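This part of the workshop introduces the protein records we will be handling. The structure tokens are whole numbers drawn from a learned vocabulary of backbone shapes. The record below serves as our worked example for the rest of this section.

===
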Amino acid sequence: MRNLRNLRFGRLDQPDVTSACWDPETDEVICTVGPTVQNPTIQLLRVSEGRNISQRPITNWDAPSPNPDLAVDRILNIQYLSGTATTCLVLEGGDIITVKEDQLGGDDAHIEIVGSIDDGIAAARWSPDEELLVIVTKTNNAIFMGSSLDPVAEVAMTADDLQASKHVSVGWGKKETQFQGRGAKALRDPTIPEKVDEGVPSQHENGAMTISWRGDGSYVAINSVQEGSRRVIRVYSREGELDSASEPVDHLESSLSWRPSGNLMAGIQRLQDKVDVVFFERNGLRHGQFTLRSSLEDVTKCVNIQLEWNSDSTTLAVVLDNTVQLWTMGNYHWYLKQEIPRDVGGASTLSWHPERALRLVFPTGSGLFVAEQVLHSARGSCQQPCDVGAVAVVDGASVKFTPFRTANVPPPMAFCDIETESSVIDVAFGHRNSSFAILHHRGIDFYDIPITNGRAGRPKLSKKTPLPDQSPEYSLPLRLLATSTGYHLFAYRGDGFVSATIGPNDASIEFSPDIATPLLSTATYDGESSIQGYGQDTSGKLYAISATSTEPLGVQFPSLLPTFEIFKPSDDVIIAFGLSRTGHIYANSKQLAKNCTSFILTPHHLIFTTSNHFVKYVHLMDDVEDLEVPGDDPEKDERCRSVERGSRLVTAMPTNMSIVLQMPRGNLETIYPRAMVLAGIRRLIDAKDYGTAFSYCRSQRVDMNVLCDYKFEQFLSSVPIFLDQLNDISYIDLFLSSLKEEDVTQTMYQDTKKYKSSFGAITSEVEATLAAKPSDGKVNTVCDALLKGLQPHKSTNLQNIITAHVCKSPPALDDGLLLVYELMKEDPKVAEKAIEHICFLVDVNRLYENALGLYNLELALLVAQQSQRDPREYLPFIQELHALPEVRRKFQIDDHLDRRTKALAHLQTLDSFDEFCSYTTKHRLYQDALRLYRYDQPRLHTITDLYAAYLESTSSFREAGLAYESLQNFSKATSCYRSSGATCWQECLFAAQQQTPPLSPEAMSQLASALADALWEAKDYAAAATIHAEYLGSLDTAIKCLCKGYLFAEALRLVAKHNQPALLETAIDTGLAEALGSTTEFLADCKAQIGAQVPRIAELRKKAAEDPLAFYEGDRTGGADVPDDVSVAASSRLSTGASLFTRYTGKTGSVGTAGTGVSRATSKNRRREEKKRARGRKGTVYEEEYLVNSTKRLVERVSATQAEVERLVFALVRRGMAERARNAEALMKDVLDAAEVAVGQVFPHAAAAQLRLQQQVNGGGEDGGVEQEAEHFHAKGGDAVLMEWMEARTKMAEPPVLAKMSKLSLLG
């Protein structure tokens, strides 16, 4: 639904221009003047655009006709070859001329006739890639030439070519294929048309030939007359091979243009009363047509009609005698977007710019016209509340007007068609969509738009203002703009630009003199009180347009942006948004995106679509630097949404929270983007319009929690307003049932707009959303607030009150049931309806249990009656309960509901202790029972005894022993403490000694011996020594235990205390010798292990650095086999040529497997790989990790042994074994030194690595991009183990800490 709007226009007053082409490098036009009958000279000009069109001669030469039958030579084709900076001209007489300009800018140009064809040339055309030149001679030969103009192929066009295609048409889209009833017509073969074209020539047949290339240069089409037959379109490949020939078409003319996208070829068919543009497929079959129409001339009287597609296949130019028409297609309808008058005479040719798709040049009888169009949507203002979604689509002499808020009519239909006297040029909308004006070639028509309740009606004509009578000089209205004083008209008259302002009461148009600063692109800003017009010059500077002058704004784009819009957050701040031809969108001079395809501005958002099929929302801010463009993440960011491929914006309606998109085919789609909907809901909540906000939440499936989560305190204070605006029981119930504890404004509906105050702090609007929710829960707080607001309306909103109780967390079912019970006393019918509603909200079985839990049998019966239960299930039970006493009834109910604690309390009330004990034992309610009889010692004693027996049966011996000990049952306590293990040896001995009668000495000795043996096994040598010394009287065994634990000082103390010096030699010295031997052996083993493992780790790391592929078992050099004694952990993948990255990052693609059916993502493979990693066998990739961990554990063991060695050395010195002590100390020092060296080699730069890792975590490292690329990959099975191992290798392990050994000074 876009129109073509004039952007640039210029005219060179130069008669006899015969051809023109573009130089895309300099963006200039190269044209030829002549030859003519009067002057057979060709003059080559270079035309450039500035404020005015200017020309610069390149060269000229004489070109007399080489053929007497040809009065004057004619230029058939002109092409600027960018690769060689050469202009190539092909003349009808047969000459092919190249002109190479002076590279230094001089006037000397090299002219060369590079070839000549004696038979003469009928048509010529260069391929789009400038690699091939196709020439058709007048003897019907097609010659294919290369870029050096050497012949590549020559093909004769004969009558046999017409048999190249065997056309079979099934009549799709024809009238013959449509259903026509049960008559005879319906039985006719639809593949046989009623009338078959025979190729009858047109009445204006001139025998001309036309050549047209497909956009990719793969095929070329030649339209020519086959003598004695018909006009035919032949399609050739680049090699000159005939691909197809067109089917016969009556009255087909010479014009031909192949759409660059390649799907259609356009030609002209002249019928009796109309002229059609007909389309052909590459195979030569017809594929649709449309009829030419014009309000400026009679199309049927035009003799020579030419066609030309622009470079992006969007616009078809039709060159008539007096006009150039620009047509576009949408939804299979052809729109006439522009008609540009041209002077009579001159060559009927047109050239599109090869890179700027809508820039064109065409010669006329009196000069050269250069113009540029821009695709522009004529839409009304998006300011609320007048955003009716008005869009005007130009189609020749009519405007298709559609207000999308009133009627969503798909094109090519419209809400209404507005006819004008001549072809429409531009449409402009007035202030707040109250009116619009249509500019056409004969005047301006003004229409008023009636708006009722936000919906626009059919426009009404207010007045017509004709354009001034055209003088003999050329005149063309360009564009129309709405301003504060009316409408501003820009036009081209004579050889310059003029403008005029049309006020509301002006009956005529008076143009002002030449514009000082030509404004090429214009836009309007529709504010609340007025509308202002803005323009942009060739450099991108912006100006404010008034009735008398243009004032610069001080805002400039980087370059001229064909489309722009204005946003004014305040009177002194202006932000301009513009879109370049290449898809770059700017805010003033700041680039926002590089892939924009269309954009629109609303009061709160910049909305734009991208080439990767997203529509994005940018929150408008007061400062350009604060504008934030969302990323391509529609799943996480509400400001980004996926749309259909190629979608473009048509209009936006913030009041409806919707936008209208047009697909590439032309059909429309209206969507309600989440960003727009949420922004609208937030504004409605700010205005306390909860009713409308609720309706949008309901229709757009937005979580209802946003109504209370956004500005929570405001919601609680506005509950009466909320209830009055909803004013519907079902709506209030819907809101209550949607409540949840989650704060949706911080999760799924987080506000992406950044609010800033003058101090850079968050404003109160955001503080409201960040307010802490009550400690008792949001749901309960909201329900309580609504219950308070509903109390005055209890008679009408009883259902809502019940719902509020039920929707609490947890549900307040008791409160709801009590409310129903109160109603039972007042009005049983209302109570029955209430119980029906509460049964609808909650599981009836759960509700029945809650009713029973209230001990209200009437209420339980009422609930049971609403359920689907059989009365035989619940009536006997309720009758049985009814017959019981009150306390017994409560016990039965609580026991039935498994509320054991309450049932136990009821048994206490009944004073049935035996039943209490059995119930406690049955349901293991010992702790509750102990609490209930805390102050009743006899019964507490009984319950404790039951609890102790239960603990003993569950193997909780320590707690059971404590319970028995509290009951003075020391025998049982001793048994339990003994069963609990060696940790309770002290409690066990105490309980054994407290037994009555006491244990015999033999039993006590056996118990102590058993405990001592258990402590020896548990390596608690000090406790074992205590038992042997104090309970068993075995001093030598006690000393042996102490020496075993390296507690030599305590052993010496006991010897001295018991005055047994003989034990010094027999026990102490023996223990010292044993300890010295085991310590020496241990330290020697540690030293040997360090000497073996550390060099191996260094060797493995050197191999990994020198040849990573071999180390990680990638491609082995020389194709060597894996040794049999080496574990092949990674090669279990059987990769056939995987790189190091693909193997150990799990990236698939080039990595193959030995068997295509092998699946690595299995738990079996993972377990196998974990076992390999744990073993760390030599030769595997896991060996280094295993050795590093082993070294770390070894160093830690050496560090832990240091204290024992120090005690051993001290004891040896005390016993006069200084030499042994010195050897042990020296050995320990050697091992510690070796361990320190090992730590430095095995864990190099550990501190630096830890610091670097921390910096990467905090600030992001260089590898962040790689990590982000691989974050979506999840390894499975054995690959997962390898990934974990590689990640562990990248993180430097923390080295073990070694304490300094304190040497004895006595040892020297």
Notes: The longest helix spans residues 1062-1106. The chain has 35 helices and 56 strands. The mean pLDDT is 85.
